[in-house]
Amino acid sequence: MAIYNFTLEHDFRLILTYHTQGEVIFWQFQDYAPSEALSIGTQFSNVSGYSLEETPYNSSFAGYKDWFIQNYIRPGYTIEVGRGTNPLPTSQFDEIYKDNLGILVLGAVL
Fold it and tell me: Is residue 64 included in any domain, yes or no?
């Protein structure tokens, strides 16, 4: 409820959500795909090395990104970090940080 209320109180241009497992970026929700979402997602993919993919149907309907895209018609991304089975080992932290720093910087200025 806190994230929901926080979002209602702010005028975010886009949102990023983080999960662990996959080194992939999901960028749309069902048929909702704001016009600039693919372009921004491609930039995130380029700086991180993660693949940009459409959200699998069976993974939709449950997340903050999906709610944000549907209600605001603005870009939202789920970034799946790391490789292997959860919980990911802390030995991946430095690589995950390096891969995602560009996403965080771009997300702040786009």
Answer: yes
Q: Is residue 53 part of a domain?
A: yes
Q: Nearest CA to 28 among 62, 73, 58?
A: 73
* Catalytic-labelled residue, pool 9, 23, 54, 80: 80
Residue of 3, 79, 4, 70 lying closest to 40 (CA atoms): 79
User: Contact 80/19 with Cβ under 8 angstroms?
Assistant: yes
pLDDT in tens, 65-107: 999 999 999 999 999 999 999 999 999 999 999 999 999 999 9
Domain limits for position 47: 12-109
Residue 4 lies in a domain: no
Cα Dmax for the chain = 38
The 10s digit of each residue's pLDDT in 25-56 is 999 998 888 999 999 999 999 999 999 999 88
Whether 23 is catalytic: no
Q: How many domains does the chain fold into?
A: 1
